[in-house]
Amino acid sequence: MGGCGERQGTTRPQAITETVKLYYGDDGNEKIVAEERSFSYQQWEDKYTVVLQELIKGPEKNQYRANISPETKVYGTIEQNGALIINFSKEFNRFAGSMAELIGVGSVVNTLTQFEAIKKVKILVEGEELTGPGGKPRGFMETFPAEVKPPEDEAEVILYFSNHDATALVGETRTITFPAETSRHDLIELVLAELIKGPRNKNLKPTIPPEVKVLSVKILGGTAFTDFSEEMHTRHWGGATGESMTINSIVNALTEFSYIRRVQMTVEGEPMNIEHAILNEPVERNEDMIQNR
Question: What is the pTM of this model?
Answer without folding.
Answer: 0.59
